[in-house]
Amino acid sequence: MTEQRKKILIVDDERLNINVLHDLLKEDYKTMAAISGKQALKAAESDNPPDLILLDIMMPEMDGYEVCETLKSNDKTKDIPIIFVTAMGQTSDETKGLEYGAVDYLTKPVSGPIVHARVKTHLELKRQRDELKSAYRVIESQKERMEDELLVGREIQMSMVPQEFPPFPDRHEFRLHAKLFPAREVGGDFYDYFLIDEDCLCLCIGDVSGKGVPAALFMAVTRTLIKARATEDRSTASIITRVNDELARDNKKFMFVTLFLALVEISTGRVTYTNAGHNPTILRRKSGDVELLDAFHGPVVAASPELAFKEDTIFLEAGDMLVMYTDGVTDTRNVEKEFFSQARLEKLVSNSDTNEAEQIVEGIFSEVKAFEGEAEQFDDITLMALSLKTDTTTGRIDEFSITLENQLSEITNANLKFNEFVEKHSLTIELRRQFNLVIDELLNNIISYAYEDDEAHQIDVSGALYENQFILRIRDDGIPFNPFIGPAPELADSLEDQAIGGLGIHLVKNLMDQAIYRREINQNLVTLIKKLQ
Amino acid sequence: MEIKTRDENDIKVIYLEGEMDTNTSPEVLSELDNLRNNGVKKMLLNLEKLDFISSAGLRVLLATAQQLKASGGDFRVCQLNKEIKEVFDISGFSTLLMVFDNETKGISGM
User: Cα distance from A342 to chain B (closest Cα, Å)?
Assistant: First the structure.
């Protein structure tokens, strides 16, 4: 396929001159002719415009300069290269022509080789300019597309994080606040919180590597997987282990996410958490003391399958606060390129005079922004805080624990141990009786019904005394069984026994202020709370 | 970001200098991809002079490590300074990647 021949427009009021140029160029180019400035403009603006114009200067009515000026001021024709053809041969005219926007000039009488050389050169230059221009257009549209994609990703991200504060206005035992301040372009931060049941709050903060739509979708999948698992699994280690397996499978884009996941038992302040490659959460005690939850539970999520993540447990008391954040906070830089840093953040949390979630989040955020000053925000800045209020657990005094075998005779040992504790702290006889009954009922239930084999099993009983309440926990490795809902899955054969079993649980629920069941990794955990007057 | 390399038998020792953030990480990735495409199967990254690494940078290391592993190659890092070690520890990359104290230890057995 031969390239289409280029079109040259020859403009001259003398037919003879047109013919000369036409004869010179007709072999290689398609030529068009105009015998006046007006005709030239018309031809140039047509839908079939020339690729180059040879323009005579001296013409009646509209001279070459005027034609040139008109063409250059019109977007449609301004890029057509113009070569002036002048009879005068005077430098000043040539200069004037170039000032009007012509690319070159020829002097009459024209010479064949020179005409050819100039025309060829300027057509080639024009071609290169056009190529550059279209490449630039491609780059521009790509850039726009990428910016659009980042924007779409950002929209998905921001629509995914809950933004109603306070999130649970009717819950007075705790306060929760979060803030995600996105960077202009990059960032994959997210957070999430939801109540699994009325006493269990799930908190999650993370940072997805990558940007745009793929990162946002990855984030959405992560969040959905966590939420789905958390409703049936009360171990953060187990939740993250499974989420990691799901995400690591077919992870062709090598994306990963750092995660901090916590399950908070609101009534007792018991927090189970797993940190998977995320910044250590800060625990601020009521006193202002700061502890870092910096145990390593596993690497970032989705990077490698079949990893077993770990978890830890801490207890929050009224006035304590958890401060979660992403590296956008600590990696914020000022104009001097200094980092905000972990140390500065810890100090800020420790020195802060608030133990309210909202105030600490907003306080840290404004400090970080003030530190950043005129420097550009580089990464998403995300903060989330949970504070426990005064009507929850306060003032841990003492605790005890005992491990039993699954023999009915062991129930006595548990109660003896408990009674020692009661005496040590001069607790009421009423409390002692209530708990003796509760321990008896629950241990009986477990030892009689929880095991499908004849092996020896261990049951852990522990108690913790606080200024305002006593909390008893019983943990066993029997079959999953929530004693507080419905009948036992495998009860005794006789109707009588079943009725009594049900009655025992009824008593437990009535004697205690709260009776909570959780299934943790291979274990049942029953928590009983009694408020102290 | 400055990237220098030297050859030690069939091992490419790669020195990363500067800050590996969102903006500079693609540069490192394309350099590492080039090396892989030119047949390099064993890489040892010396991170002594790397001042900063963000998750974008970690992703580059992870992608390269996994691709080399998939093709029977070897990917190691060594000489982590305090800042980089901290990020590696927090993110768990200390356990995901093969990390060595110095070049000699990194090279041995490769």
Answer: 11
- State whether residue B69 sits within 8 Å of chain A by CB: no
A396-531: CATH, from 3.30.565.10, 3.40.50.300, 3.90.1150.10, 3.30.1380.10: 3.30.565.10
Q: What is the mean pLDDT of each run of 10 residues along chain A (533 residues)?
A: 79 90 91 92 92 91 90 91 79 75 85 89 89 85 81 84 86 91 81 90 93 84 91 90 92 90 91 95 92 93 92 91 95 92 94 89 95 90 90 74 91 91 90 85 86 91 88 91 66 43 70 83 86 83
pLDDT of B12 reads: 96
Is B55 near chain A, with CB under 8 Å? yes
Does any CB of chain A come closer than 8 Å to the CB of residue B5? no
Q: Among A189, A247, A256, which would you mutate to test the B interface (most chain B Cβ atoms within 10 Å of its Cβ)?
A: A256
pTM exceeds cut of 0.95: no
Q: Would you say A203 and A185 are in contact if contact means Cβ atoms under 8 Å apart?
A: no
CA distance A84 to A300: 69
Cβ of B21 under 8 Å from any chain A Cβ?
Answer: yes
Interchain CB contact of A62 with B (< 8 Å):
no
**Superfamily in which the B2-107 domain is placed by CATH:** STAS domain (3.30.750.24)
Domain ranges of chain A: 7-132, 161-388, 396-531
Is the torsion defined by CA of B48, B54, B58, B64 positive or negative?
Answer: negative
- Out of 3.60.40.10, 3.40.50.300, 3.20.20.70, 1.10.1610.10, the CATH code matching A161-388 is 3.60.40.10
Residues of chain A in contact with residue B58, where contact means CB-CB under 8 angstroms, are 209, 256, 300
Percent of chain B at pLDDT above 90? 61
For A408-446, give the DSSP string: TTHHHHHHHHHHHHHHHTT--HHHHHHHHHHHHHHHHHH
CB-nearest partner of B92 from A255, A277, A379 = A277
* A 211-240 near B (Cβ less than 8 A): 211
Predicted complex ipTM? 0.72
Taking an 8 Å cut-off on Cβ atoms, the answer to whether B91 and A300 are in contact is yes
Q: Alpha-carbon distance B101 to B107, whole Å?
A: 11
In terms of CATH, what superfamily is A7-132? Response regulator (3.40.50.2300)
Residue A242 CB partners (closer than 8 Å, separation 6+): A225, A229, A233
| Contact (CB, 8 A) for A96 and A49 | no
Q: What is the average pLDDT value for chain B, to the nearest integer?
A: 91
Q: Report yes or no: A327 at the B interface, CB cutoff 8 Å.
A: yes
Contacting residues for A8 by C-beta, under 8 A, at least 6 apart: A25, A29, A30, A31, A32, A50, A51, A52, A53, A54, A119
Angle of CA points A349, A353, A356, to nearest 5°: 80
- Using CB atoms, which residue from A207, A300, A331 is nearest to B92? A300
pLDDT of residue A452: 87
Chain B residues close to A256, C-beta within 8 Å: 55, 58-59, 62
**Chain-chain contact of A296 with B56 (C-beta, under 8 angstroms):** no
Measure CB to CB from residue A209 to each of B58, B66, B90 and give the nearest one: B58
pLDDT on residue A394: 64
* Overall size of chain A counted in residues: 533
